[in-house]
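G., the chain you wanted modeled:
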Amino acid sequence: MPDLAQPTSDASAGALVEAGCALLKTYRLDDAIACFERALSAPEQRVLACSGLVSALIAARRLEAATDVVSRQLALHGQFQAPSVDDLCNRLLWAGRHAEVAQFLTDNPSIFGYLASHEPDGYHVDALLTYASEIDPALGHVFGDLYAQIAGRPFAYPEQLLAEPVDGRTELLFAAHPYAGGSAFVNLLLLLGVRVDECGRRHRLLGALDDGHDVWTLRDAPDVLPARLLQRVTIFRRDVRCYSFSHRLPAPSALVGRRAVFVVRDPRTALAARAKPTRDLVESGTFARMAQHQAQDWCDFVDGIAHVPGALVIRFEDWKADPTATARRVLAFADLDLRPSLLAEAVHWSGTEVARRLRAAVRPVTADAAPVTTEPPATDLDREYALVEAVCGPRLGRYGYDSRPAPAP
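Predicted structure as tokens:
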């Protein structure tokens, strides 16, 4: 790794950063890392190069190296891109490495000073304090006080994270790996009158749809659903509350006094759901590299939930085949009783087709949007499926995924 303490001017550093970003998008991680490392020597590109390097190291699952890069950048230059630190912490939490997040923040208190000076809206400091508070409430208060001292103003939490369990109320925790259909679960609970709070990058009341990047509320597209259903997301039941962890694992301390629900999906079909497997992606090898990366994430998730006692694990395939029966399993797990007519209505309006309509209403296609490819999808994914199977191994059988799914349509 280049010596961050001895930067030298490099006129081509900008091109190296641009090349590294392009390589990162195609999962050529070693080449991307090399580009970003070379660009670090140019002072004018150092922050961007560091951010790209951290992203590439995270994607390559070299989390210790990513932590070291951020720590050295802070120590030597006192600056960084806030999303890099947020992404690093989130990836450690995804792998269940909560203690390492606490240690990283403890070792780098200057993070909060930098954010106090450079981020007036508090978005990323909110995320970091949320992570710390979830792991250890006392630690969250320590960092919150530190931020307030440096910023000269108290940090305003949106709401107390993971409020103490209430006697007589069922407390649920929920998480799903990406592209496992977790939004259907959130939609269902909301339509059943259950409040769902996101415990992620920004602690907030969820609305309806989460595609892994953005959350849209039912109130953003009121014409999509009947008015009588919109009222259900503003008047909630008092006997149950759910906390949703956006594609990451809750800390062990958060499980105390709560019931956990997780959604899993065959990692091979989740791969095809993530990106249309066009012939270009398959033949260039990009899809194969994506397959291995996503399979490793899937293993992290199922390994983490395997250690949660008494959790309810729902398969996406079962939900899709019989959503009503699967919903009844959730209701029984949460000790909730509901009239069959209300359940049927909630199941219908939390389905995939309604989710597509909501997304289209909230994010309409604009004239300057990238054109949708008309290239036919590849039907032969034997190589990609074999890569997933090699990475996931016997874990597939744990959830009944021994047989290979049908080819992508």
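Confidence is low (pLDDT under 50) at residues 1-8, 207-216, 365-373.

Shout if anything looks off.
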